[in-house]
């Protein structure tokens, strides 16, 4: 994915960002005109066709969840370069892990950070 075009349908806007399971790109869907998160797991996760199908089935269950204010929406999964790749809603703002590591989660003093942490916990539970 060295060039800017991916599968003749997406333009790489940012990334790859390395995560625990693989790479995430911010791509623009050229027909929809929207930014998506393209999440591509590491190839070694799919040593067999059964593992690949299990992953795809889990993605399809995520897609069927539909719209929810506390869950990132998954639009579809398709194979890119032989790897099942997830296309989901792009969320700005970084990850919870980044907020913990750069300590922005704790900004504003004890009361503000506690309020922020409880808000995240409640949203997670609702999701």
Describe the structure.
The chain is α+β, with helices and mostly antiparallel strands. It is 31% helix and 32% strand. It has three helices and six strands, in the order ββββαββαα. The relative contact order is 0.12. The mean pLDDT is 91.
Blueprint (SSEs and pairs):
Blueprint: E1 5-6, E2 10-18, E3 22-29, E4 34-41, H1 49-64, E5 74-80, E6 83-89, H2 96-101, H3 109-126
Quick recap of the structure?
This protein is 31% helix and 32% strand. The chain has 3 helices and 6 strands; from the N terminus they run E-E-E-E-H-E-E-H-H.
Low-confidence stretches: none
Q: Could you give the distance between the termini?
A: 33 Å
Given helix and strand content, the structural type is: alpha+beta
SSE order, as H and E? Answer: EEEEHEEHH
| Order of strands in the sheet with most strands | 1-2-3-4-6-5
Strand content: 25-35%
Largest sheet: 6 strands, antiparallel
Helical content (DSSP H or I, runs of 4+): 25-40%
Mean pLDDT rating: 91
Structural descriptors:
single chain; 127 residues; alpha+beta; six-stranded antiparallel β-sheet; 3 helices
């Amino acid at each position: 994915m060295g060039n800017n075009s991916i599968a003749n349908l997406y333009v790489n806007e940012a990334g790859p960002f390395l995560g625990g399971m693989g790479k995430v790109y911010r791509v623009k869907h050229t027909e929809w005109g929207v930014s998506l998160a393209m999440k591509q797991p590491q190839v070694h996760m799919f040593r067999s066709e059964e593992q690949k199908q299990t992953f795809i089935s889990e993605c399809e269950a995520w897609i069927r969840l539909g719209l929810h204010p506390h869950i990132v929406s998954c639009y579809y999964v398709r194979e890119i370069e032989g790897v099942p790749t997830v296309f989901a809603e792009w969320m700005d703002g970084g990850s919870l892990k980044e907020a913990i590591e750069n300590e922005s989660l704790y900004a504003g003093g004890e009361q503000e950070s506690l309020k922020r942490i409880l808000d995240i916990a409640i949203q997670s539970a609702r999701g």
